[in-house]
């Protein structure tokens, strides 16, 4: 507990804590819609395809600014989503393979660019690969301020557009029939995912950023059947995982914040999977054994009736 | 002993089979004994558990309760006696293979673990394709076949299995009239060879014409027996409930046509 | 000599991955390949921690076991109602996180470079040679990849019909008594082996590219499974060669260039395939509409 207090008072740790909480919150919220649209792995694909965008942004400007990276990653992320929909629309390749193709091609291109950066004399490239692996501990005040703005933006937008996002997640065809600009809304949602991913990469790295989007949303799905509650819970789960991650990693010097947050989130998922009301494994097992019991009883009573009939004859 | 002997002549015997996906039982207490050399239709509304019954009988989904015997023995000892035609939509028709190859897959069960299909299998597959009138399309990539042709390929594959008891899941769904006629002639031929065919069917208009026996199913068995005894208005109404539009004045045929699109 | 070893290693990686990739693509399990390639990391670290050696074969074993655990967990969650791709995402991120934590806990005594796991360094392969009774037998990675390739070819050709039927119609496969689950895990085990043997040279993420891209391109070029496998291997090997050439010109990551070359070949197949290409389709539509107009 002492360390928790230390962490609360140390200004540096405060920034990191705030950053992780915000990140968990906003990716938890946006992840719900991705999950319901069956696009959970889109986060992973976007994270990988952000790499060439980030590299090009760095090569063009020579600075490591989160805003520029955001723009670069956003553009290459959108190109990646176009690529996926092109491949699935114009060939017989299914969406999973299309995702794999786009993900690895973009990442391959990104690595080529990264080696170009490393081999040429861009001044302060040293931190770029750290950026890719994620290093929450290296976040500073100005980074967190950018994150604050971005997260507030996403959360507010999701609140305002809640019913539209709900509709396009559930039944896009119907939404189109009602006259909503479904294409625009879908692109907007995709753009929010890109933003959440790019912000997340800095804290947890390319590979683990998918977990920030998926795991809290899946966990929240186990506790409720209402989208509003699910979104709020998912955001809270994400934030909680951020707190646990920051706290545990501040107690042990060698523990990295990002992976610990992801593991905390996974733990929450396992608890939800086991104990969620109605959908959880435990609840399901109880229901199943009850079904078997009622069946047995029905059969017994039927047999009794038959015997009665027989004896009365 | 005598019971066992008796059971050995019964193609399919299901004893109080129950299946539940979640809370709700999808099949409750289904019992059934099939006579050899018959065409048997399984009829019922959507969600009545028709396909589930077939899948449970084949051991593809877990049973809650009950037993299934094929010619007196558990299903997994008798696999070679059984042919199966799944629903057409259950496979990916973009798969890189041709019609002949799909039919040859019917022989895989008999080939055992390591043997590869050879000239003999190819000859059998060609023969089966010819029986369904598809011999000239043997080399066609399967995605370029029409719905009816795909169904014929599936049927040819079942023929290649050379079984004694066939399960067919909606073989008439979405096929053209010519294919439907070809399929039913084939089923008659199988029956003539003393084989037993169990068909999930949804077109009430053709039931009397096609099947010797009918099972009316809606979670539980509503009625089972010879078509002329079982396929009656009162039984159908009991099975389909409110969904069976009952118009007194009209003739049977018209009436069944009305409700024939029950599967949707 | 370096060129030779790099090209040989690349060709072996491409062949292993391209064969298995065909089945992954056809079974719509491409992203499971991605998941396996990521969860290799904790497998390697745990194998190292338990054995204390960097012996490649022990790591191969550890990582293969973890690959199977990944598949098992994904299926377990799927059966308990989690969407397919969400359960993939949950499992591989959790396992990868465990891997990163283990590496950072043991940073001082584990000589595992995270960068190397993720990006691979095929140019270093020939430094790590295998010596037997004083004789230089060539790079270890080549031996390991060669053995893996032999196993893959052996298993796939022995059980070709089973793998084919399980991919096309698993319900029928189960009905005629093929142990579908066994072949599923056999395939997944082979994918894990291929991933582990390859990660040292191309890195965990780019293995996915070698698994999926050549197989998808081949899928657009042929309508026969057997031909698809051979075309897939050819495209894989071709992209190795092209990629290596380009990487020398550009002085860039070899593995990255190989995947980019594969991507370019895929785009060519996507546009120009005689049967399924975009151009051929457009032309066919034009002639069709032209005919109806006349």
- The tally of domains of chain A stands at 2
The largest inter-chain interface, given as chain pair and residues per side, is:
A-C, 59 and 64 residues
Q: Which ranges of chain A are low-confidence, i.e. pLDDT below 50, for 5 or more consecutive residues?
A: none
The CATH homologous superfamily of chain B is named P-loop containing nucleotide triphosphate hydrolases
Write down the CATH topology of the largest domain in chain A.
Answer: ABC transporter involved in vitamin B12 uptake, BtuC
**E-strand count of chain A:** 0
Largest sheet of chain B: 6 strands, mixed
CATH architecture of the largest domain in chain A: Orthogonal Bundle
Uncertain segments of chain B of ≥5 residues (pLDDT<50)? 246-251, 253-264
CATH second-level architecture of chain B: 3-Layer(aba) Sandwich
CATH topology of chain B: Rossmann fold
Report the C-alpha radius of gyration of chain A, rounded. 24 Å
* Helix amount of chain B: 25-40%
The overall average pLDDT of chain A, rounded, is 81
Biggest sheet: strand arrangement of chain B: 6-7-8-3-9-10
Helix/sheet category of chain A: mainly alpha
Biggest sheet record of chain A: none
Listing every helix as H and every strand as E from the N terminus to the C terminus, the arrangement of chain B reads: HEEEHEEEHHHHEHEHEEHHH
Subcellular location (chain C): Cell membrane
Protein name (chain C): Manganese transport system membrane protein MntD
Keywords (chain C): Cell membrane, Membrane, Transmembrane, Transmembrane helix, Transport
InterPro entries (chain C): ABC_BtuC-like, ABC_TroCD
Verbal overview:
Chain B: Pfam families: ABC_tran. Chain B: Keywords: ATP-binding, Nucleotide-binding, Transport. Chain B: Residues 12-244 form the ABC transporter domain. Chain B: InterPro entries: AAA+_ATPase, ABC_transporter-like_ATP-bd, ABC_transporter-like_CS, Metal_Ion_Import_ABC, P-loop_NTPase. Chain B: Belongs to the ABC transporter superfamily. Chain C: This is Manganese transport system membrane protein MntD. The complex is a heterotrimer of chains A (313), B (264) and C (294). Chain A has 313 residues and is mainly alpha-helical. Chain A has helices spanning 2-9, 11-36, 42-61, 66-90, 95-119, 128-133, 141-160, 162-170, 172-177, 182-221, 227-251, 257-275, 281-312. The longest helix of chain A has 40 residues, at 182-221. In chain B, the strands form two sheets. A six-stranded mixed sheet of chain B has the order 6-7-8-3-9-10, with helices on both faces. In chain B, strands 2-1-4-5 form a four-stranded antiparallel sheet. Residues 246-251 and 253-264 of chain B have low confidence and may be disordered. With 294 residues, chain C is mainly alpha-helical. Chain C contains 13 helices and two strands, in the order αααααββαααααααα. Chain C has helices at 2-26, 30-51, 56-79, 84-105, 114-119, 140-158, 160-168, 170-175, 180-202, 204-219, 225-250, 254-272, 278-293; strands spanning 129-132, 135-139. In chain C, strands 1-2 form a two-stranded antiparallel sheet. In chain C, strand 1 and strand 2 (135-139) form a beta hairpin. In chain C, helix 3 (56-79) runs antiparallel to helix 4 (84-105). Chain C is globular, with a radius of gyration of 20 Å. In chain C, 57% of the residues are buried. The model of chain C has no long low-confidence stretch (mean pLDDT 83). The interface between A and C is large, with 59 and 64 residues.
